[in-house]
């Protein structure tokens, strides 16, 4: 995916970054977020030996979780602060093993709908495409 995106306003970026700083998964995985844009996010996660499977590769669920977070935050840039979103479906194709880090997820929102939105993501290990995913989110009204 090309890394061209429309920048967020300072207020939009502050709101999305506030969500990021309060996310326990992002904190515990030491994920960095070097880029955010309108419907776009780039997340970078270090490879930790504790996240490897029995043959020393990054466990697939960790790749899917990183991808899910990146797409979710790309979508957060497009929804009002009081609205909630939740993953309802995901598909991840694992294309190459991840043996080391950092692991980078580049996410874009393909369709922002009223009820459902669709995001796509690529996960990279250095210059190698490791996974590609398609994620569907539901928009929930505040309680």
**Within the largest sheet, what's the order of strands?**
1-2-4-5-6-3
- List unreliable stretches of 5+ residues: none
Taking all Cα atoms into account, the compactness measure Rg is 15 Å
N-to-C SSE series?
A: HHEEHEEEE
Helix content: 10-25%
Helix tally? 3
In round numbers, the mean pLDDT is: 96
Shape from CA axes? globular
Instruction: Summarize the biggest pleated sheet.
Output: 6 strands, antiparallel
Distance between the termini: 36 Å
Q: Can you count the beta strands?
A: 6
Return the structural class: alpha+beta
Strand share of the residues? 35-45%
Question: How would you describe the overall organization of this protein?
Answer:
- The chain is globular, with a radius of gyration of 15 Å.
- It has 143 residues and is an alpha+beta fold.
- The chain has a six-stranded antiparallel beta sheet with strand order 1-2-4-5-6-3, with helices on one face.
- It has helices spanning 10-21, 24-28, 60-76; strands at 32-37, 40-45, 84-94, 103-111, 116-125, 128-140.
- The protein has three helices and six strands, in the order H-H-E-E-H-E-E-E-E.
